[in-house]
Amino acid sequence: MYVDGAMPMLAFSKYQGLGNDFLLLDGREAAQADETLGLSPETVQRICDRRFGVGGDGVILALPPQQGGELRMRIFNADGSEAEMCGNGIRCLARFLADSDGDTPGRRWQVETLAGAIVPELLADGSVRVDMGEPFLQPADVPTTLQVGPAGLPQGELEAGGEPLPLRRWGWAIPISSSRWPPLNTLISSAWVRSWRWTRPSPPAPMSISWPCGRLTTW
Q1: Among the listed residues 16, 104, 31, the one whose alpha carbon sits nearest the alpha carbon of residue 66
Q2: In DSSP terms, which residues pair with 108 in a beta bridge?
Q3: Mean pLDDT value across residues 101-123
Q4: Residue 68 binned pLDDT confidence (cut-offs 50, 70, 90)
Q5: Which whole-number Å values give the CA distances from 73 to 83, 86, 135, in the listed order?
Q6: Can you tell me whether residue 82 is helix, strand or coil?
Q7: Strand-pair partners of 148
Q8: Which residues in 42-57 are b (16+ Cβ under 10 Å) and which e?
């Protein structure tokens, strides 16, 4: 992959998990000081652009471990920001490793992430299972400044495109928010997401947001 005149060719693979697609780069043999394999936030944006780049929801790097694990995972969103972890992303990483190394069912990987150690496992049918641990529902654990509502977990509200949008805030290895599906005439886009404004206390940490709509849609 050749991005610009200042960047060399990069070998990558592309995988998807439940529709989340990622570019995967193997840097397990990279020097410890090479934390991003030479990728800047701007380069990640260009790579993930679906019109002018390869296209993807993010870039995942497999790097040497730092805390006794087998390898370390870094994941960058399409906007160039770094995420703590991603369930679909780490499953893609595990399958990528299995395909690259010729691993067989039952193989497990001790993967270091910003959300802690995660252990995906290759199953007999070729899929990957990952234990995300117990969900955390208390405001201090998410973390969030929202208070626990009637549903038993932190709840709040934001303004999206001029309309109120109730949210529930919780966590499962990473901070997550879920909401009802927006009005049918709403075009779900990055511009629409960027229009959000919190009308109650905002969360102190970045978040993923998911809508149940026959399938799970996540931003």
Answers
A1: 31
A2: 121
A3: 96
A4: very high
A5: 10, 10, 21
A6: strand
A7: 154
A8: ebbbbbbeeeebbebb
**Gap between the Cα atoms of 75 and 22, Å rounded:** 9
Neighbours of 120 (CB within 10 A): 24
Question: What are the b/e assignments for 59-74, b being 16+ CB within 10 Å?
Answer: bbbbbbbeeebbbbbb
Q: What's the confidence (pLDDT) of residue 208?
A: 61
**Per-residue CA distances from 172 to 48, 59, 118 (Å):** 25, 21, 12
Q: Do residues 20 and 89 lie in contact, with contact meaning Cβ atoms separated by under 8 Å?
A: yes
Which tens digits make up the pLDDT trace of 146-167?
Answer: 888 887 888 887 776 677 777 7
Higher pLDDT, 94 or 193: 94
The residue type of 179 is S
Cβ burial of 39 (10 Å; 0-12, 13-18, 19+) is: buried
In whole angstroms, what is the distance from residue 56 CA to residue 137 CA?
30
Collect all residues with Cβ–Cβ distance below 8 Å to 70 and sequence separation of at least 6.
109, 110, 111
Q: What distance in Å separates the CA atoms of residue 3 and residue 47, rounded to the nearest whole number? A: 7
Instruction: Name the CA dihedral angle for 205, 179, 58, 5, rounded to a multiple of 10 degrees.
Output: -80
Structural contact between residues 58 and 76, judged by C-beta atoms closer than 8 angstroms? yes
Give pLDDT, residue 218: 47
Domains of the chain, each with CATH number or no CATH: 13-130 (3.10.310.10), 139-218 (no CATH)
Q: What DSSP element (H or E) covers 74? A: strand 71-77
Tokens of 175: 């901070």
